[in-house]
Amino acid sequence: MKKIKYLFAATLAATLASCDNFLDVKPVGKMIPTEVSQFENILNNSLTVDPYFMMDNNRSCFYAAMADNLTISENLAQYQFTSTFPNLDLLAAYIFYSPVMDPISTPFTWTYGYKALGYFNNVVDGVTAIDSESAYAKGVIAQARLGRAWQMMNMALCYGPMYQAGGANDTKVLPYRTSGDPTTPNGERNTTAEIFELVKADLDYACENCPNTVANHSRADRACAYALRAEYYMYTRDWQNMLADAQKAWELAVANSGGVDKLIYNYNDFYYEALSEINPPEGCSPEPYMTLRGPDNDFEQTTHREILLYRSTPYGTTTTKYYPSEDWKSIFDFDNDLRCKKFFFTVEGYHTTYGDVTVDDGLQLNDYRSYNMETTEGITYPQLLLEKAEAEARTGNTAAALQSLNTLRKYRYNYGDGVSTDLKNGSSMSADQLLNEILTERRRELPLVSFQRMLDLKRYAFDSGKPWSKSVIEHKIGTKTYSKPITDAYFQSLPIDNAIIEYNPQWGLQTNTTEFAPYSAW
Hints:
The protein is mostly helical. It has 20 helices and 14 strands.
C-alpha cells in the first residue's frame, strides 16, 4: 500500500498525495495558512532539507557509485548484493548495468524531490497572494525560490546531460513545476536550457531578496543566494560571473560572521576522548570507539559554522555496501592532511559466514567525517572558498586563486610547529597545475558519498586533456573491470520509471519491461 501511495504521488511529479501528506497546508481539522509567517513555517518542514536527493530509502547513493570515489569488493558483490538486497541500484551503477534503476520502482529522489518542490511552490503562491511587496514577504518567497532552484538545477544535471556553454541544451529532461496546486498536471518535460532559464530567474530573485542573515542554514541568506548562483555560473562555464558571485558571497559571509575563523573549523582543534574503556579489534583504530571533541558543541548540528546551505547527505561511513576507492585515497597526504588524521580510520571490513563458507575483506580504511560531523550536499564555506579559487584560476588571476586555496589549507593541514601550510611551490605552478590542485582540494573537501563528484566529472569533460578531466570511469570487482567513457549516454540520462511514464503519456516515453537483475550481471 505504501508503494502504491508513492506511485500515485509521482503521477503529478510526486504532488498528488493527500493534502495531509503533501503540504500540510489544507489538512482536515487544521488551520489553512492566511499569514506570511504561517507559509514561512512550511519552509521548516523536514522534506525541504531532506528530500532524499539521489538517495534510496537506506540513505545510500547510486549516483555516487557511478563516479570514482567508491569501490565494491568481490565479497560484497557476491554475498551482499544478492537478489534480496534492497538497494541493487548501487551495484547496477557500479558495473554500469542498464537500466541503472529498477523500472518498476519510483525512486525516493523523484518522490520526495517533487514533494519538496511542492512545498516551495506552495510557499511562493501562498505568500504572493497575501503580500508580495514587503521585504519580509519577499524574503520568504526568495528562500522558497532558492530551494526550488537548488533542487531542480541539480536534479536536471543528474537526470540529464551537463549544461554545454554555447550548445543547444535541448535535451528534454524533467518538468520544472512552478505551481503549488497539486492538481495541476505536468506539461512536457523541460529541456536543460529551459530548466536553467527558470533556475536563473529564481536565483536572481533570491540574490535580490533573501534576508542578510538566518538562524539556521537549512534556510538561505543572501550569501547563500550568491553562492548558489555562482554554482549556476560554474555549471554554465561563465567564469567571470561565477567569480563575481563567489566573491560577493564570500564577502557577505565574512562580514556576517566576523571573520574567516568563524566560517571554517581548524581541524587541529579536534581530538578524541575515551569516555569508557575501549577494546577495538586487533589492528583497528581506537577513534571510532571514542567521542570526538571540538572547539564548540555545534559540529554535529546543521547549525555548525561551516554550513552555508544544509541538505542531508547519504551515509558515507559503512562497510556493508562500499569502501573508499584507491583512486580517492590517492589524493590525500596521509602524513599532513588533518582530514586523514582526524577522520580516516582502519576498521573491520565486510565479513560474514554462509554455511561452511567464511568471507572476510580484512581491515579497511573508512571515512568517519560524515559520521562524526554534520555534512551537507548543499554548500559549505570551504566549498565556496574553493569555488572562488576555481573562478579566479579560470579567469587568469592565479595569485588570488592561490591565496584562496592557502586560506583553506591553513585549517586542513599541519606540517609541524612553525611550518607553513601554504601549497608548496604554488607560486611557481602553471595555471593548469594550480587549477588541478584547487579541484583536487575540492574533491577532498566534498562528502565522500554524494551526487556532487559525478557532476564534477561530467563538467570536467569539457576540459578534455586537462589533468583533472577523466575521459573514462573505471571500476573493478576482483579481477573484472568495468568502464565507460564519461561522454557515454549512460551518464547523460537517467531512466524514468514505468509508473511515472504511464501517468505522463504526453512525454512519449516507452516503459521498460527489462528484468532488473544486476546481481547476475557482474
